[in-house]
Design goal:
Strand order of the largest sheet: 1-4-5-13
Largest sheet: 4 strands, mixed
Oligomer: single chain
Structural class: alpha/beta
Shape: globular
Number of helices: 17
Strand content: 15-25%
Distance between the termini: 39 Å
Number of strands: 13
Radius of gyration: 21 Å
Bound molecules: uracil
Helix content: 40-55%
Order of helices and strands: HHHHEHEHHEHHEHEEHHHHHEEHEEEHEE
């Protein structure tokens, strides 16, 4: 078999066989097929798509490219959660300790930032000493003792996805339904949980720009999960504007801590309670409403915040920083975007906000980039909010003048205004189960 024939076949709109898919996945993982040929194939798939059978075969080839985690030594029903990626999406930071504080073991594998979207691992590294590069044994031990652990994708778990994820990030080939579905489901299935709750984002800041595509992606992933015997469901949530107010890394961690303290933004809290009620509902086999009551109590009592501190400490971070988030990295300079006249915010192009954060240094321009955890953006005004002339709309935080100027320009263009009041779209758009 020749890689060039596989690229040509997909470039010309053909359907790849299971053998062809396995050939390129195995060859790439072994280092026998170079990045440039796989980039070309990713672009051909991006333009010509894959049918359900190809997507299923790609998922299984990626799953089989490494080992599968055996979580059988963790007592109880283990749940995992994954978001398709958004801007300001710090959900996992709030949701995982929240669910764990209700006694449901959370064994979560997370990723780094991708394209204009942030990643949980980058955010968590805002805690000095925190590590998600832990062994499988430590991971299992943490879940058994703390009730929660988050690990990065090791080189042994779905290594094909790890390689493709980094390559797609810098070759503009992320936002394809089959590539996203196979990427997410291969690593989720490899991570060995009994149940998976997916947060599929829809809107300007998501990889799926409209609800129709978001529902289709959700259906594809739920079908793959079911086919593999894992309870899987998806919540479709709004990403037409960033979630919460903070976009970046340490700045998002601060907002997550505020939420765990009961002082966070309503949209973030609501999404966490919704996703959490399905996770706890799955694990305990109870109605989502009963699970929600348990979660609300855990949040209000401060148990979820304490669980977060316990988790941060166990993975090498400083527990004190959870209770004193001002200790987390902060940028040296800031600049405000102000309203030129009285108006209402009519839209915020989330992808542009994510790109502004990347330009400040909060995301990667190439695979090797080291990100600056201290930079970011705070959106004082969100869609529907009224602004008075001269009032702050957003603040950009950065460490170098060029980055701040670039980020500020991008952010400025992300906002649109109206003279009249504006209606906002619902946060939860539907469920696929
Ligand atoms: N999240 C993933 O894990 N993979 C993708 O391809 C997109 C979002």
């Amino acid at each position: 078999m020749l890689m060039v024939d596989i690229i040509r076949k997909k470039r010309d709109g053909g359907t790849l066989t299971r053998q062809e898919i396995e050939y390129f996945i195995n060859g790439y993982v072994k280092g026998e097929i170079p990045d440039y040929q796989v980039s070309a194939l990713m672009m051909a798939i991006f333009f010509n798509g894959m049918n359900d059978e190809e997507t299923g075969d790609l998922t299984l080839a990626m799953l089989d490219s490494g080992e599968k985690l055996d979580l059988s030594s963790i007592k109880g029903f283990k749940v995992d959660k994954h978001s398709t990626g958004g801007v300001g999406d710090k959900t996992s930071l709030v949701l995982t300790p929240l669910v764990a504080s209700c006694g449901v073991p959370v064994a979560k594998m997370s990723g780094r930032g991708l394209g204009h979207t942030g990643g949980t691992i980058d955010k968590l590294e805002s805690f000095r000493g925190f590590s998600t590069s832990i062994s499988n044994e430590q991971f299992i031990n943490n879940v058994n003792t703390v009730g929660l652990s988050i690990m990065g994708q090791t080189k042994d778990l779905a290594p094909a996805d790890k390689l493709l994820y980094a390559l797609r990030d810098v070759t503009a080939t992320v936002d394809n339904m089959s590539l996203i579905a196979s990427s997410i489901m291969s690593k989720k299935l490899a991570a060995g949980a009994d149940g998976i709750v997916l947060d599929v984002k829809s809107g300007s800041g998501a990889f799926m720009k409209n609800d129709k595509d978001a529902f289709l992606l959700a259906e594809k992933m739920v079908a793959i999960g079911r086919h593999s015997g894992v309870r899987t469901m998806a919540v479709i949530s709004d990403m037409d504007q960033p979630l919460g107010h903070a976009v970046g890394n340490a700045i998002e961690v601060r907002e997550a801590i505020d939420t765990l303290r009961g002082a966070g933004p309503d949209d973030l809290k609501e999404l966490c309670l919704t996703l959490g009620s399905y996770m706890v509902g799955f694990a305990r086999d109870i109605p989502a409403d009963d699970a929600r009551a348990m979660l609300t109590e855990a949040l209000d009592s401060g148990r979820a915040l304490d669980k977060f501190a316990e988790f941060v400490e166990r993975q090498g971070g400083c527990r004190d920083d959870v209770y004193n988030p001002d200790n987390l990295p902060k940028a040296s300079a800031s600049i405000d975007l102000k309203a030129e006249k009285d108006c209402y915010v009519s839209s915020i192009m989330s992808e542009e906000v994510g790109t502004a954060s990347l330009l400040l240094g909060g995301g990667r321009r190439s695979k090797e980039d080291v990100i600056d955890l201290s930079v970011g953006i705070y959106l004082h005004k969100k869609v529907g909010d009224k602004c008075k002339a001269g009032e702050r709309i957003a603040t950009v935080y950065g460490n170098d003048d060029a980055g701040i100027a670039e980020g500020f320009e991008r952010l400025k263009n992300a906002y649109e205004y109206s003279d009249d009041p504006v209606r906002t779209s619902p946060l939860i758009k539907g469920i696929v189960d």
